């Protein structure tokens, strides 16, 4: 559900370059971690979860302005590190069909990778005292909520700029205080205008966004719970 669809040339260079660098570091850590595991059984699962995410992310849901990711389910099935590799592959492929620019692949991988890793960790923590379905539902809901907060923060900070985020520490002072204040105010006004333009079910603004997010999170939670319930019946070993 949390996926930046921003085309190339919109995000500041420092943002998407940093995203690629951090993604490269995480991939190297993932490769190191995976060397300790028997990948002969897991690599086929990697292909399956990549296919699942590609399909769900590519299918629009009509009037609902979001799509399903199944990132938490991916983390549950293949673990955090192989899941991180999977989301990188998926985001890279999606960028070739216009599902977000090539420059945001790094940032999208970090965001969806966070969902995979956090979802996997929470599921394994919750299932110690809860049923697998309940653990999957809680893990998915909490993970998506945190991911959405992160993605909204990133979009907001990218509009304001680094020099206004650091609270004047290391500031180059090329702009005076009035210029800074005006820039921030214009950014906030622009964001408010964008929020007010959102409309869903004859509701606009923050109310529409809240409804969309509740439906989106609820739908992904429901699908993940049903998938875990099904797998628990036919292949419970996959959840271990």
Automatic annotation (TrEMBL):
The chain crosses the membrane at residues 13-31, 43-61, 81-114, 135-157, 206-231. Pfam families: CbiM (PF01891). Keywords: Cell membrane, Membrane, Transmembrane, Transmembrane helix, Transport. It is a multi-pass membrane protein. Its main location: membrane. One of its GO terms (biological process) is transition metal ion transport. This is Cobalamin biosynthesis protein CbiM. It comes from Anoxybacter fermentans.
